[in-house]
């Protein structure tokens, strides 16, 4: 499933022309990620980003219209990194359950391996209803849709292959997967609880799969196993 890139969702004020300008944008994004992770959206300022880089705030505004656009680009770029990791490593020839466990594991690992700052930023802005939430608005919703697209694609392929139940909408199935993961991440951020990412991914999929799989999938699996065993015995 093709999804728009971060630059498509949040066009920069001025496209960088030349290697020096491109490096400047990379620096602004790098430091912007640090400040947003440390401060959150409301307390982060373009002034601090500029000061850390030793440039004027006007230089930041040369490439980004403001904090909102910069924040969307930071989150979008981070999402792109996670999506790329999922798509490059996804074992597409494996059963859907195996692919789902890989997605869940990658999601938890990359959300936490970067530190909890960006993770907290994403989760908090997704729930904010005040001024910050209004300012981020539809741009954040679009980013979330793009981020969840690989899972939606997997679930759709699972429905097509008969491995995932088709009597429930993809959007509800998506929420069933992301809801518990979000809860896990909030526990790490708010309570400081450490989790075993490998074990958590396995346990979560073991809990979710009975609700996701097609009602007759277990019976079909047993039939395939019986057929495989019969074939093996015939060949022996």
Could you report the average pLDDT, rounded to the nearest whole number? 85
What name does the CATH topology of the domain at 68-214 carry?
Answer: Tetracycline Repressor, domain 2
Q: What distance separates the N and C termini?
A: 44 Å
Supply the helix-strand structural class: mainly alpha
Number of helices: 11
CATH superfamily membership of the domain at 68-214: Tetracycline Repressor, domain 2
- As residue ranges, the low-confidence spans are 6-10, 129-133
Shape: elongated
* Integer-rounded radius of gyration: 21 Å
Residue share in β-strands: under 5%
Top CATH class of the domain at 68-214: Mainly Alpha
Helix-strand pattern: HHHHHHHHHHH
Task: Please describe what this structure looks like.
It is built from 11 helices and no strands. The N and C termini lie far apart (44 Å). It is an all-alpha fold. The protein has a domain at 68-214: Orthogonal Bundle (Tetracycline Repressor, domain 2). The radius of gyration is 21 Å and the shape is elongated.
Please write out the topology.
Elements: H1 6-9, H2 19-43, H3 46-53, H4 57-63, H5 67-89, H6 96-113, H7 116-127, H8 131-161, H9 170-191, H10 197-212, H11 217-235
Provide tags for this entry.
236 residues; single chain; Tetracycline Repressor, domain 2; mainly alpha; elongated
Give a brief outline of the structure:
The protein has about 240 residues and is mainly alpha-helical.
């Amino acid at each position: 499933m093709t999804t728009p890139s971060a630059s498509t969702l949040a066009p920069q004020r001025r496209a960088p022309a030349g290697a020096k300008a491109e490096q400047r944008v990379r620096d602004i994004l790098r430091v912007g990620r640090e400040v947003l992770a440390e401060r959150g959206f409301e307390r982060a300022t373009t002034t601090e980003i500029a000061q850390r880089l030793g440039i004027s705030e006007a230089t930041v505004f040369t490439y980004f219209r403001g904090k909102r656009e910069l924040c969307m680009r930071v989150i979008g770029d981070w999402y792109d990194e996670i999506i790329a990791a999922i798509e490059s490593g996804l074992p597409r020839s494996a059963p859907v359950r195996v692919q789902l466990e890989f997605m869940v594991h990658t999601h938890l690992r990359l959300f936490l391996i970067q530190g909890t700052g960006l993770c907290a930023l994403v989760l908090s802005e997704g729930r904010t209803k005040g001024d910050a939430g209004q300012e981020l608005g539809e741009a954040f919703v679009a980013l979330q849709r793009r981020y969840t697209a690989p899972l939606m694609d997997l679930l759709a392929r699972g429905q097509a292959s008969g491995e995932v139940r088709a009597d429930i909408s993809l959007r509800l199935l998506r929420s069933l997967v992301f809801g518990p993961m979000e809860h896990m991440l909030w526990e790490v951020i708010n309570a400081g609880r450490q989790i075993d990412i490998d074990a958590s991914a396995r346990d979560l999929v073991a809990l979710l799969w009975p609700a996701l799989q097609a009602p007759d999938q277990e019976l079909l699996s047993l039939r395939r196993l019986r057929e495989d065993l019969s074939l093996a015995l015939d060949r022996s």
